[in-house]
Write a structure and sequence with these properties.
Radius of gyration: 19 Å
Oligomer: single chain
Number of helices: 5
Number of strands: 0
Structural class: mainly alpha
Distance between the termini: 48 Å
Helix content: 55-70%
Shape: elongated
Largest sheet: none
Order of helices and strands: HHHHH
Length: 95
């Protein structure tokens, strides 16, 4: 994975939390930088994992350990999606 150095302006109090030498801490920081783009649909979990150089499942587990859900749909939306799939299967079975 190629890397690029950038310069950003942050509050002085954030410096210890951004300048990390521990690999796991760097991965978490970088994953958190990508998370808003996953939430708004700009990128997928798979693309974020690819950017970070890890497997998608490892990223999902990392977010889970940090208290961030993989599935963000409400239970009602999930039930609607399941019903839509069931209806589509019934239509296919009739054909």
């Amino acid at each position: 994975m190629s890397q690029r150095r950038i310069e950003i302006t942050i509050p002085e109090e954030m410096v210890p939390f951004v300048l990390l030498s521990d690999g796991e801490a760097q991965l978490k920081r970088n994953a958190m930088l990508l998370y808003p783009y996953i939430q708004d649909g700009t990128i997928s979990h798979g693309k974020a994992a690819e950017i970070l150089g890890i497997h998608k499942l490892d990223l999902i587990v990392l977010y889970s350990r940090m208290g961030l859900d993989y599935l963000t749909e409400s239970e009602i939306d999930l039930k609607k999606d399941i019903e839509t799939v069931r209806m589509a299967r019934r239509k296919d079975a009739v054909r």
